[in-house]
Amino acid sequence: MNLNSSPLTDTEATQAAATISKLRNALQQVLFGQETLIDFVITGLLSRGHMLLEGLPGLGKTELVKGLSKTLALQAKRIQFTPDLLPGDITGNPMLQEVDGARRFVFQQGPIFANLVLADEINRASPKTQSALLEAMQERRVTVMGESHMLPLPFFVLATQNPIELEGTYPLPEAQLDRFLFKLDVQSNDAETLEKIVMHREIGVEPKVDMVMDGAQLNELLDMARRVFMPQPVANFIARLVKGTHPGELFSGGVKYGASPRAALALAAASKARALMGARLNASYEDVRAVAPAVLRHRLLLDYGAKLEGVTPDILVARLLENIPAQDKPLPSSLKAAKL
Predict the structure, then answer these.
(1) What CATH number is associated with residue 102?
(2) pLDDT in tens, 108-118
(3) What domain range is 198 assigned to?
(4) Domain count, the chain
(5) pTM (two decimals)
């Protein structure tokens, strides 16, 4: 069954793709040489999902978020995660104030009350502080002292972490990782891109970027992405792909825990968003294959043997995509016993 309220039209898809192209071009003027990353960030945005960006310092992760907020006219806030950061520093705290002649606690909103939140170096904060984001990322609200407060919509969290620093960091628990739609690897720049950066950038000077759309136009795009048609065979492919990540399904070893049903929903949303970016009315097998690594790489928990053999989640996802057919056909018996 498809959940679309009304079919997307060719005219709407064409107009949406043109607007998205303008957004892509604007962000490419902010961040040079990262076209693939920008496309994934836009796909995640259209999917209403949160994203985890992993890469070395200085590659432009913060500038990308700033540029995104300017092009979309969204309220953006940055939270620098440190070991001494407390949950209330993120969500806000009740403050004792005098109201109408009486003293009472009044909730003061924290920096999470924004459309676009940059959680910088999220793995530097303690697990207790990290958990303050869980309800916000899933429910779009925060609860303090038994009172719930709705966050502004749209609401996106873009978190960053450094992959090589381990001292003084706290790895994100699986429950929180699962709430990120994408985990994106930010690659280093090549020499040609570095030359362009040297010629067009200065330290301490932010690049200028024009607004591409306002909040109302963004909401229209988000609605169109949800209305992209999901064919039943493609939904079946997503289901078999997620099922194949679990131990004993495709490979005889390597995975300790597979992806959750949330991963299937993420694949569906991201596939429809990618189809809209291409001015297409329905999601395809190719859309699923394109977004699968970003959706699944942080949702696979590998066993000890896989780590010893140097197997990574990306390697397993690539083998899943290679071995699970698009059509619903029984897998060959040789694949059932495939080794890592």
Answers:
(1) 3.40.50.300
(2) 888 999 999 99
(3) 10-336
(4) 1
(5) 0.87
